[in-house]
Specification:
This is Cytochrome c biogenesis protein CcsA. Helix content is 75%, strand content 0%. The protein has 321 residues and is an all-alpha fold.
Length: 321
C-alpha cells in the first residue's frame, strides 16, 4: 500500500513539473531575455527525471521485475529515457538544442500513459510465462531506449527540413519569375550548397549565421542520437531473436511486431547509407529520418492496436465513456 501511494505521488509530481517546464519553454520562445526561466526549466526536467527514476524503482521493488512488461510501464520507461536524453547536453554544459523536443516528448508520453489508458492498466500484474525470462531486461530496455533515441533524432531531422525548406521558399518567393517553376530536391540541394559556398566567402549577417549554426547543430545532434538509437535497436532485435528461439523455438517468426521492427531497422539503415554518400547526405538523409519517425510509431503503437501476434500482451485499451 505504501509503495502504491508513493508511486501515485511520484507520478503526479513528475507530470506536474514537466507541465510547468512546457509552459516555461513557451515563455522562453516568446521572450529570449529570460535566462533564469531557461535554468528553471532545466532544473524542472532534472526533478522530472528523479521522480520518474523513483517511480520505476518503486514499481520494480513491489512488482519484483523491471517495469517494462506492458504498455503502461514501457511508456513510463520511454518518458524516463526522454528525460535522460534531455539531461545529457545540460550536464555537458552544451546549449540544449534537444529541449524543445525532449521536454514535450516526456510530457505527451507520460500524459498519455497516465490519463489516456484505463486505470486497470496502471496496476502491476504477474508476468505471463513468455516474459518470465532473463532476456526481458535486455530486449525490452534496448528496444524502448532505441525507440526513444530514434524518435528524438528523427524530430531533429524534421526540424532541419522545416528550417531548410522555409529558407528556400523565402529565397524563391523574392523572385516573381520563379513562382511558376518547379524545383526538384536535387536543385534545392544545389542551391543550398551554393549558398554554403557564398557563406564561407562573404561575412554573413547575424540572422543567416544563426540559422546556419542551428542547421549544423540539428544535423550534428540528429546524427549522433540516431547512431545511438540504431545501436540500441540492433541489440534489441538480436537479443529478441535469441529470446524468441528459447521461448518459441525459432529465431524469427515474422510476427507483426517483428516485421515492423525489421522495417524500422531497414529505414534507418538507409539513413546511414545516405550519410556515407556525399550526393545524398543532408536533405535526403533528413527526409529518410523523418519517414522513420512515422514507422517507429507504427511499430510501437500501431501494431498494439491490432492486438494480434506473439506480442499481443502489449496491446492496450483507451479510456472509454
Amino acid at each position: 500500500m505504501i509503495f502504491l501511494t508513493l508511486e501515485h505521488i511520484l507520478t503526479h509530481i513528475s507530470f506536474s513539473v514537466v507541465s510547468i517546464v512546457i509552459i516555461i519553454h513557451f515563455l522562453t520562445l516568446l521572450v529570449n531575455e529570460f535566462v533564469g526561466l531557461y535554468d528553471s526549466s532545466e532544473k524542472g526536467m532534472l526533478t522530472t527525471f528523479l521522480c520518474l527514476t523513483g517511480l520505476l524503482i518503486t514499481r520494480w521493488i513491489y512488482s519484483g521485475h523491471l517495469p517494462i512488461s506492458d504498455l503502461y510501464e514501457s511508456l513510463i520507461f520511454l518518458s524516463w529515457i526522454f528525460s535522460i536524453i534531455h539531461m545529457v547536453p545540460y550536464f555537458k554544459k552544451h546549449k540544449n538544442y534537444l529541449s524543445t523536443i525532449t521536454a514535450p516528448s516526456t510530457f505527451f508520453t507520460q500524459g498519455f500513459a497516465t490519463w489516456g489508458l484505463l486505470t486497470d492498466m496502471h496496476q502491476s500484474k504477474i508476468l505471463v510465462p513468455a516474459l518470465q525470462s532473463q532476456w526481458l531486461i535486455m530486449h525490452v530496455s534496448m528496444m524502448v531506449s532505441g525507440y526513444a533515441a530514434l524518435l528524438c533524432g528523427s524530430l531533429l531531422s524534421a526540424a532541419l527540413l522545416v528550417i531548410t525548406f522555409r529558407k528556400v521558399i523565402r529565397i524563391f518567393g523574392k523572385n516573381k519569375n520563379l513562382l511558376n517553376d518547379s524545383f526538384p530536391v536535387d536543385e534545392i540541394q544545389y542551391m543550398m550548397e551554393k549558398s554554403n559556398i557564398l557563406r564561407n566567402t562573404f561575412f554573413p549577417s547575424s540572422r543567416n549565421y544563426y540559422k546556419f549554426q542551428l542547421i549544423q547543430q540539428l544535423d550534428h545532434w540528429g546524427f549522433r542520437i540516431l547512431s545511438i538509437g540504431f545501436l540500441f535497436l540492433t541489440i534489441g532485435i538480436l537479443s529478441g531473436a535469441v529470446w524468441a528461439n528459447e521461448a518459441w523455438g525459432s529465431y524469427w517468426n515474422w510476427d507483426p511486431k517483428e516485421t515492423w521492427a525489421f522495417i524500422t531497422w531497414t529505414i534507418f539503415t538507409i539513413y546511414f547509407h545516405t550519410r556515407t554518400n556525399k550526393n545524398l547526405e543532408g536533405l535526403n538523409s533528413a527526409i529518410v529520418a523523418s519517414i522513420g519517425f512515422l514507422i517507429i510509431w507504427i511499430c510501437y503503437f500501431g501494431v498494439n492496436l491490432l492486438g494480434i501476434g506473439l506480442h499481443s500482451y502489449g496491446s492496450f485499451t483507451l479510456i472509454s465513456n
